[in-house]
Amino acid sequence: MFRKENSGKISFSWNRLVLNTFPNSSNDSKDDVELSTKEQDDLFRFQIVQPEPRILNSQSFFIGGVVGMVITFLLSRLNPGNWCRKAESPAQSPKILSSLQKVSIVNAIAPFVDTTKITRNFPNQVASISVHRQRKLVALLFFWEEELTRWRFLDEEEEEIKRVLKETEEVGNIARPRNKSADWNARSEESMDREALKIALSKIIARRVMPPALRRHEGAGELPVYGDQHTLSVIGGVGSSGRS
Predict the structure, then answer these.
(1) DSSP designation for 218
(2) Spatial distance between the Cα atoms of 208 and 195, rounded to a whole number of angstroms
(3) Which residue among 31, 107, 198, 232 is least crowded, i.e. fewest CB within 10 A of its CB?
(4) How confident is the model at residue 78 (pLDDT cuts 50, 70, 90)?
(5) How far is residue 16's CA from residue 74's CA, in Å, rounded to a whole number?
C-alpha cells in the first residue's frame, strides 16, 4: 500500500510489494545501485548540452538510469496476431523531479543539488519508485553534487586567472624604463607570463566539458589546481605588483 502524491489516496502496487518484500528480485547489489561509468558519462554529456547544464531536469533521471523506458506491447496492424513493441517516455521522471524540488533537494538556483536535505523521510518523498531505484537516485544526486563542486572550483580558478590577466595588462601599460634592453626584457617576460595564463585558461575550459570516464583515464579526476609552478609564480607576482 502507498499514498498517491496528487490525491493522497491509498493505493496498491503489486510491483512495489514484490520489490520491497523480495529485495533480491530488484537486483539491489552494490554495483547496480551505483551509477555505472556509462551512466555517469551519459548524464554528464546530456547535461552539458542543456540550456542550464547545472540544473537537473525530468529526463536526467532516465539518462542516469534511475528510471527505465516504459515499453508497451501492441498488436501489429500489418501482421495480425503478432505483437510489436512501442517505447514511451518514462512517466515517473516528472514525479521524481517534482518531489525533489518540493523538499529543495533539487533546485533551479545554486547549489542546484543539496544532499543534506536527504532525510529518513526520503523513501516516502519518492514513493512512486521502488526501494532499489530510490537508492540509485541517491547515488545520482551525490554524483551530480560532486560534479557541481568540481565546476565551482573550475569557475573560481577561471575567474582568478582572468583577474591576473587583467592585472598584467594594467601593469604593461605603466611607463617603461628608458633602458631599451631592460624594457625589451620586461616586455618579453610579461608576454611569456600572459601566454602561460592563457594556456592555463584554455585547460580549464577543456576540463569543464571532460566527461568522468575520460578524466579518470587521463588522471584528471581530482579537483582542479593550477597546472604548474610557473603559473603559480605568475599569479603571485602579478597579484602583488598590481596592488603595489
Answers:
(1) H
(2) 20
(3) 31
(4) low
(5) 25
Cell readout for 133 is 531505484
Separation in Å, CA 150 to CA 17, 134, 171, 210 = 39, 25, 32, 11
Measured in whole angstroms, how far is the alpha carbon of residue 48 from the centre of its chain?
A: 8
pTM of the model: 0.66
Contacts of 65 (CB under 8 A, 6+ apart): 35, 36, 39, 42, 136, 140
Q: Which residues sit opposite 58 in a β-bridge?
A: none
Q: Specify which residues 70 forms β-bridges with.
A: 88
What would the pLDDT profile of 104-115 be if each residue is shown by its tens digit? 999 999 999 999
- In order of 29, 61, 113, 122, 169, the CA distances from 20 in angstroms are 14, 21, 27, 15, 64
Burial of 236 (0-12, 13-18, 19+ CB in 10 A): exposed
Query: pLDDT band at residue 167, thresholds of 50, 70 and 90?
Result: confident
Residue 137 is which amino acid?
L
Q: Is the peptide bond before 111 cis (omega within 30 degrees of 0)?
A: yes
- Report the C-alpha gap between 156 and 224 in whole angstroms: 10
| Residue 88: strand pairing partners | 70
User: Distance between CA 154 and CA 148 in Å, rounded?
Assistant: 10
73: β partners: 85
Mean pLDDT calculated for residue range 75-84: 53
Q: By percentage, how much of the chain surpasses pLDDT 70?
A: 57
- Cα 60 to chain centroid distance, Å, stands at 10
